[in-house]
Amino acid sequence: MTLSESETIERVLRDTHTWAVVGCSANPDRPSHGVSRTLMRHGYRMIPVNPMEAEIHGQRCYPDLYAAQEDAVAAGHPIEVVDIFRNSALAGIHVDEAIDIGAKAVWLQLNVIDEAAAERARHAGLWVVMDRCPAIELPRLSLGA
């Protein structure tokens, strides 16, 4: 059964708990900083992924998804959603990594569009949300705290 875009968004937001935010920034002026904080405020486990950062929001920052998933699995909370804050031209790399690590979903942020990568993820059985922001969608769906 194919879900509509709104059904997919709702399913990802309701049925997942551990999000890796690729391209997360410690700079409070960057959108990824605020969105990752919002995820945490709504009760999601947020794992920042950025090789240039050591820690964001008090959370250890990982250089890549593979290292993040290794620790997440060891802690008993594997990554379920890979939230991508990267240029569209680089998004496909991280979608492929999400498939490799066994994520349930990929979420490509506003203006991050890669149809071919999205199709690869769907073909691999992942939920795909593209050109959307969870910080905008959470209040629309009355989800979280």
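That was protein one. Protein two is written in the same sequence-then-structure order:
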Amino acid sequence: MNLKEKWLAWSQIPAVRTGLTIIGVLLMLVSPALGILPGPGGIIVFGAGLGLALKYSEWAKRQYVQFKRKHPKKGRWADWGLRRRSARRREQLRKQREAQIAAQAEAQGD
């Protein structure tokens, strides 16, 4: 069993998931204090906390989905910032749809 498999098994324990979620929330709460310091430290710490919370908390995932539905443009930015694979896939599909629509409009215009 390699290190990745051990971590995956360990991260399925409810107490560990709760602890990692709490660490994520604490990082998000600390980020405004780091924001007053020069540099992008607060943003990076907030992103790390959000990533932990989203990975290990079902409640946070539901809240994130609701946020993205209400604010799709902000949700795209958040996905981009978190470097989510699903965000890259959706962005590629969106660009393909826009290209198809543009091609259809150009074909109709001829």
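Helices lie at 3-10, 14-35, 41-56, 58-70, 72-82, 85-109. Keep this in mind for the problem set.
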